[in-house]
Amino acid sequence: MTVTKARRSFSSGEKDIAVDVFEPTRNMPRPAIVMLHGADGLGSNARYHEGAMAIAASGYQVHLVHYLDRTGERRASFSTLFQNFTPWTETVQDALAWVSERAEIDPGKVGLIGISLGAALGLSVASADPRIKALVSFFGPLPQGAISHDAHLPPTLILHGAMDPIVPVANAYAIEALLRRKDVPHEIQIYAREGHGFRGRTQQDAVRRVLTFLRQYLDPAPITSGSPLFPPATDIDKTELS
């Protein structure tokens, strides 16, 4: 399926927030994916765009949100990570509103994919926003204090490396326990030999799991072969969370 890419923007906190939109050439309302990068930002990291292209090729309109524009950063700084979490969360909420209002989107089929810091933001927002019908967490932390006791989470897919030195795998199990307590449909896959980022066959398996999960909860689009979805860890990533 042919995929086109365009740069658009919306306003959040009186700031212009860029969004890279990847959409298949299919003239009908389609499911939407909001995609949130990690702390390394979008800078020169082309593999986030490759991942968005791979998902869009399966029939989704993917919105890769530059949420760091809200705080004027190219990458998240550890020293301001926690104080900026709230404005980033507000920007993700504004992104969801902007996406849901687009005419070519099926507003009843909106999913969110978060990577690392983006996964924490996604979990926080999804716990309070019923528009999100499916959530994917790639090696993300459980944001302490950001999820209320009466939160209603959507079906969730958790993917994590057992050897992750940045966001310990205990976070994945804590998210799983939360979902169990709330009786939320979920899947979890822990890769025994992987760290903060997936490669090779593990990466291919993660792609397959993501597309199968999205197909189950958003759309019966056929699964396409997987190109690399998300980048491996970098030195930038290692400042993200301890």
Automatic annotation (TrEMBL):
Keyword Hydrolase on entry: yes
Domain spans labelled Dienelactone hydrolase: 21-205
Coiled-coil regions listed: none
GO molecular function terms attached to this record: hydrolase activity
Keywords assigned by UniProt, alphabetized: Hydrolase
UniProt KW Hydrolase keyword: yes
Gene3D superfamilies the UniProt entry points to: alpha/beta hydrolase (3.40.50.1820)
Name listed for the protein in its UniProt record: Dienelactone hydrolase family protein
Organism encoding this protein: Microvirga puerhi
